[in-house]
Amino acid sequence: MDKEEMLLVINDTIMNFKKDIEKPFVMFITKERFSHYLDMMQLKKHLDKTPCFVAEMKGGNLLYYCEEIINKLTKDFSHTETKLFLQGITLHELLHIKNKLHVFTGEEAVFSETIVDQELKAFYPRQHAILAMVTMTK
Q1: Does 49 score more than 90 pLDDT?
Q2: What Å distances lie between residue 51 and 8, 58, 72, 86, CA to CA?
Q3: Residue 42, by phi and psi: left (phi above 0), alpha (psi -120 to 50) or beta?
Q4: What is the phi/psi pair of residue 78, to 5°?
Q5: Is 46 in a helix, a strand, or coil?
Q6: In terms of pTM, does the model score above 0.85?
Q7: pLDDT band at 41 (very low <50, low <70, confident <90, very high)
Q8: How confident is the model over 44-62, as a mean pLDDT?
Q9: Are 22 and 61 in contact (CB under 8 A)?
Q10: Which contacts of 76-80 are long-range, i.e. CB under 8 A and separated by 24 or more positions?
């Protein structure tokens, strides 16, 4: 899937998110820059399994995506599965924004991820299932 089509799926997912959050900015960046930003944020990274992340900034939240990583993770997917995957990773980050949990330690990061995973599974089971499939097989 090309970046323009990904952007359509991402923006549709954001617009249909039923929670009260301000619309984040969406940016696609190169894998090199993506890796650098994860390092700057001191996030434990699994670069080949992390297709996007959210950064809270003074002017609003930014959702960063890496087209190369997304395409690698979804290379064997159908178009429908790729769309569900994009929805899933976007919903995952939107739930982080909604929860407003500030993470400063590894323990806090695990807690935040656990909550988001439970919410995604409860409210968006199809998207959760495709993300679970990727993390188990890749």
Answers
A1: no
A2: 17, 23, 9, 9
A3: left
A4: -75, 170
A5: coil
A6: yes
A7: confident
A8: 84
A9: yes
A10: 79/1
Report yes or no: 23 and 14 within 8 Å, Cβ to Cβ: yes
Mean pLDDT of the chain, nearest integer: 91
Q: Which amino acid is at 68?
A: E
Residue 40 burial (C-beta neighbours within 10 Å; 0-12, 13-18, 19+): exposed
Report DSSP state, residue 74. Answer: T
Any idea which residue has 């970046």 for tokens? 3
CA distance 52 to 64: 5
The angle subtended at Cα 124 by Cα 118 and Cα 125, nearest 5°, is 80
Distances (CA, A) of 65 to 43, 113, 124, 125: 15, 18, 20, 22
